[in-house]
Design goal:
- The structure is a single chain.
- This protein is of the alpha+beta class and 93 residues long.
- The protein has helices at 3-13, 20-41, 85-92; strands at residues 43-46, 50-57, 60-63, 70-73, 76-83.
- It is built from 3 helices and 5 strands.
- The strands form 2 sheets. It has a 3-stranded antiparallel sheet with strand order 1-2-5.
- A hairpin with a 6-residue loop joins strand 3 and strand 4 (70-73).
- It is elongated.
Length: 93
């Protein structure tokens, strides 16, 4: 699902009548807020929904499968979402 699809779902669930552009703006504001919180603390937890956290991958050396040349993979950060047990249980039912 892309941002526009999410905005359509948000628009249907909203108690107030809002148009699709306003829904996209509100989703953008929420995503920016989560991004800033991740930068500041490294972890954002939504009780009953799940946790976003930043993982740091360590640098490593790998071999190119074709040329067998050794290459260095630089460290990088990635974001991981872990759903809560409550959310995964609802999905299974």
């Amino acid at each position: 699902m892309n941002k526009r699809g999410l905005a359509k779902v948000y628009q249907k669930m909203s108690k107030n009548e809002i148009d699709i552009t306003q829904a996209i703006k509100e989703i953008g504001i929420f995503l920016e807020t989560v991004e800033e919180a991740l930068i500041l603390s490294g972890k954002v937890k939504f009780v009953g929904k799940g946790t976003f956290e930043i993982l740091e991958r360590k640098p490593r050396i790998i071999a190119n499968p074709v040329t067998k040349e050794l290459m260095k993979i630089y460290p990088k950060k990635s974001i991981k979402f872990t759903p809560s047990k409550k959310l995964t249980k609802e999905k299974a039912d």
